[in-house]
Design a protein that fits this description.
Order of helices and strands: EEEEEEHEEEEEHEEEEEEEEEE
Helix content: under 10%
Strand content: 35-45%
Shape: elongated
Largest sheet: 10 strands, antiparallel
């Protein structure tokens, strides 16, 4: 490639439908299979509720969900696993049977790698079946809720969930960094089933609102200014999500598949992780060339940092007259100033493997506001 000849393999001209079945030959293609079916879930639960003294309601439930035919992309042009045994011969250049039939791209050359011609569809490069409907998931949970409706100046809601979610590749979502990496072997999707990156073993959420009784019944200045205040607390405490170990270098030459490191079977999780070594990196090693690693997609014991967060508010409505009233608020987010660290580097072979290099949440934030309503 030079400045005088920036496109030595030619340019792909938009052909519309004029080429029929020959459209996009020699290129990456993506398609939606008309045989795809609508995904569905089966849900079941057993719930017991009981009213206790002091206006308390306790609710305990077992909840199960099974997701089937979930829409996940699938690569369908990976080199068959058995052909990886050819090793370096996969890189050997051989005469290209498509030479002269394909105008642009790597398949326009006179020779191509032997690996390309051993793919299921050698006339294309990558082939993606979009939303192919091969995914599945399962979720089981114990859910407990305690609720106190407003009485004696107090209302409260607390919920705890103990759960496990398994899937074959939830993928990543905008703004989050927990993805377990791509699929390693598209011909062995059963090996991808592992704890979901959405899994949180323990999750406890509580919120309390209490109307302070001080000066609430007094008239005059004390009652008008110091009475009628409410405090609110929201607490969020939950486990981190499983992390997936990937590899910085793909040595499989599998033509669409990925590669993870080898794992010696020792639990990489640490009871007291540090920022410089969040998990035990010594249990991983480089797999042989032209071979897949044996590391699972995610580890149940290797998780992102847990969350302990408390938000606090103090507010009061001040009635000025029949038409006007003012709301005064003071709020503290992350009241205890507890850090939540971002996930560590999970790419084996990189300098940041197992190292936490940033914070995921904000430090304590204080704000005060006055709002006039009319």
């Amino acid at each position: 490639v030079t400045l005088s000849n920036p496109y030595p393999t030619g340019l792909n001209v938009a052909s519309g439908s004029s080429l029929g079945a020959a459209t996009l030959l020699g290129q990456d293609i993506s398609f939606y299979d008309r045989g795809n079916v609508t995904p569905y879930t089966a849900q079941w639960n057993l719930d017991i509720q009981r009213e206790l003294p002091a206006g308390l309601l306790i609710d305990a439930a077992y909840v199960g969900t099974r997701g089937l035919k979930l829409p996940l992309d699938r690569q369908v042009n990976q080199l068959p696993d058995a052909d990886l045994a050819l090793g370096n011969n996969l890189r050997t250049l051989v005469p290209n049977p498509f030479f002269g039939q394909i105008a642009g791209g790597s398949l326009a050359a006179a020779t191509v790698s032997r690996a390309q011609l051993l793919r299921p569809y050698p006339q294309y490069t990558a082939m993606t079946s979009a939303a192919a409907g091969w995914g599945s998931s399962s979720y089981h949970a114990l859910q407990v809720k305690v609720e106190k409706r407003y009485s004696k100046n107090l209302t409260m809601l607390a919920s705890y969930t103990y759960s496990k979610m398994m899937d074959v590749g939830a993928g990543t979502f905008g703004g989050e960094t927990l993805g377990g990496g791509g699929i390693q072997d598209w011909d062995n999707l059963g090996a991808e089933r592992s704890p979901s990156t959405l899994d949180q073993t323990h999750r406890f959420i509580m919120n309390v609102v209490y109307s302070l009784p001080f000066f609430s019944k007094q008239s005059g200045f004390l009652g008008h200014v110091l009475g009628g205040w409410q405090v609110g607390v929201i607490g969020s405490f939950y486990s981190g999500s499983p992390l997936g170990i990937s590899s910085a270098v793909n040595g499989t030459f599998s033509q669409s598949g990925g590669q993870r490191p080898n794992w010696n079977g020792t639990d990489p999780g640490k009871s007291s992780p540090t920022l410089s070594q969040w998990f035990d990196t010594t249990v991983f090693s480089t797999p042989a060339a032209y071979a897949f690693g044996n590391t699972p997609r995610t580890f149940n014991s290797v998780r992102s940092d847990k969350t302990h967060n408390v938000d606090f508010s103090l507010h009061k409505n001040i009635r000025i007259n029949e038409r006007l009233h003012m709301e005064a608020r003071a709020e503290a987010f992350n009241l205890t100033n507890t850090p939540v660290f971002a996930p560590p580097g999970t790419s084996y072979g990189s300098n940041t493997f197992g190292v936490v290099s940033s914070q995921a949440n904000q430090p304590r934030v204080l704000q005060m506001a006055l709002k006039l309503l009319f």
